[in-house]
Design a protein that fits this description.
The chain is of the alpha/beta class. It is built from three helices and four strands; from the N terminus they run βαβαβαβ. Helices cover 35% and strands 26% of the residues. The chain is globular, with a radius of gyration of 12 Å.
């Protein structure tokens, strides 16, 4: 883990409102969310509002993530 990154690019995975809360904090701190992996309608709407790419959690998101550049992957759940 490279803790020297002041701004980083990440991917979020989750289906609960905690993902939105964490995502808002990340965005406020200037980080980039490259994609959100979810099937939850509320999170899909949030991602669309912020122009964040959404990958379907029921689909082959692993293949899509191989093509995405990011520093961290956060799986966020209660």
């Amino acid at each position: 883990m490279n803790c020297s990154l002041s701004r980083y690019r990440c991917v979020l995975i989750g289906a609960e409102s905690l993902l939105i809360e964490c995502g808002d904090i990340l965005l406020r701190q200037g980080h980039t969310i490259a994609a959100v992996v979810t099937s939850a309608e509320k999170i899909i709407a949030w991602a669309e509002e912020h122009g964040i790419r959404r990958l379907d959690a029921q689909g082959d998101y692993a293949t899509a993530l191989r093509e995405e550049s990011f520093d961290y992957l956060f799986s966020i759940t209660h």
